[in-house]
């Protein structure tokens, strides 16, 4: 979305200047400047007249006008699907630190798990940033590819052809989790699925299926569930109905909600059911019991994405040779996983097993 411009008698379309605002409001340019930059130094009636003229002329302050003229704002948009999810805290911290060191400002956008909102905000805010980092984008591959052709972007936790990306390898971590659970004697594992629009959700499920075949373990997928703690109750009930002895949850927030529901139903973790989360967010080790989960270099992902994007934006730099980076994950074993129960518990229904 480009700023609206006002036509002038000389036949050109140009942004209004401070002098234009002053002329339209019948004051000196210096007075107009004071009213817009230091309102307290101008009386209310005059200030309101100047502000009204600025609005009507779509006046853009000099700093913004220079950015629009040069095409550079030195601002980077960072889009996350849920700003309240602790997983994104590390990414936001990593991008913020790296951008600050490079003299850039971070524009943080919460897309609320909505692909439509994500797409809309990218269009609406386009004049305000030089490039964007999309953390766990909910856009389709086709839309993301088209976007990359128009806007310098780097995606985190998303691999799409033609799009620079930083991939946190949670699928490999899921395979580690399956091996861990199989070694404890579990022969049936449920995957508590995350949002259908999540690219990483599907990759984790596929990794679980591959590993389950290797370890000769039965698998079942339940959900999808919102990647939030409140959805844990429904996820826990679905796992119990499936009759499995172990579960891998889409993320830690969902797993933490499941722990609470298991307690409500008198199900012991890990004696009756073992549970694995994903992300190792702040608080995962404070749960009761502490959560076995996949640990990832989340803050590093943010820093790497910024470095990759800024290299693309620097016209004086050599062409970017690296379009993708993969960061490894590892399984952190805590008390929420243990040996499979020798016999089914009365809390777990064996009906409905796939």
TrEMBL record:
GO terms for MF: DNA-binding transcription factor activity; transcription cis-regulatory region binding
Keyword DNA-binding annotated: yes
Keyword DNA-binding: yes
Residue stretches making up the HTH lacI-type domain: 16-70
InterPro entries in alphabetical order: HTH_LacI, LacI/GalR-like_sensor, Lambda_DNA-bd_dom_sf, Peripla_BP_I
Keyword line: DNA-binding, Transcription, Transcription regulation
Entry-linked SMART domains: HTH_LACI (SM00354)
A Pfam family: LacI
CDD domains in the cross-refs: HTH_LacI (cd01392), PBP1_LacI_sugar_binding-like (cd06267)
UniProt region (Disordered), positions on chain: 334-354
Protein name: LacI family transcriptional regulator
Source organism of the structure: Leifsonia shinshuensis
Classification of source organism: Bacteria, Bacillati, Actinomycetota, Actinomycetes, Micrococcales
């Amino acid at each position: 979305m480009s700023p609206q411009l006002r036509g002038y008698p000389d036949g050109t379309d140009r942004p209004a200047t401070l002098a234009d605002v002053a002329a339209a409001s019948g004051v000196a340019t210096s007075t107009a400047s004071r009213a817009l930059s230091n309102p307290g130094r101008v009386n209310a009636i005059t200030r309101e007249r100047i502000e009204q003229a600025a609005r009507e002329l779509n006046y853009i302050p000099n700093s913004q006008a220079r950015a629009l003229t040069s095409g550079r704002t030195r601002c980077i948009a960072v889009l996350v699907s849920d700003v309240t999810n602790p997983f994104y805290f590390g990414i936001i911290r990593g991008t913020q630190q790296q951008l600050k060191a490079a003299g850039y400002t971070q524009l943080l956008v919460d897309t609320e798990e909505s692909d439509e909102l994500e797409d809309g905000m990218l269009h609406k805010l386009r004049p305000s940033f030089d490039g964007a980092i999309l953390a766990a984008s909910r856009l389709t591959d086709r839309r993301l590819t088209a976007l990359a052709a128009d806007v310098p972007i780097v995606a985190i936790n998303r691999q799409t052809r033609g799009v620079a990306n930083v991939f946190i390898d949670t699928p490999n971590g899921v395979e580690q989790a399956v091996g861990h659970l199989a070694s404890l004697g579990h022969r049936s594992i449920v995957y508590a699925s995350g949002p259908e629009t999540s690219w990483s959700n599907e990759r984790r499920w596929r990794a679980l299926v591959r590993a389950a075949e290797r370890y000769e373990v039965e698998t079942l997928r339940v959900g999808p569930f919102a990647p939030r703690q409140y959805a844990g109750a429904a996820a826990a009930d679905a796992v119990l109905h499936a009759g499995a002895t172990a579960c891998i949850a889409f993320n830690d927030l969902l797993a933490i909600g499941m722990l609470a529901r298991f307690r409500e139903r008198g199900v012991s973790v890990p004696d009756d059911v073992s549970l694995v989360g994903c992300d190792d967010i702040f608080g995962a080790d404070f749960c009761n019991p502490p959560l076995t989960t996949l640990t990832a270099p989340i803050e590093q992902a943010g820093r790497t994405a910024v470095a990759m994007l800024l290299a693309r934006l620097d016209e004086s730099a050599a062409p970017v040779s690296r379009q993708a980076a993969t960061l490894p994950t590892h399984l952190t074993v805590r008390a929420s996983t243990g040996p499979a129960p020798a016999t089914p518990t009365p809390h777990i229904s064996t009906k409905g097993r796939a």
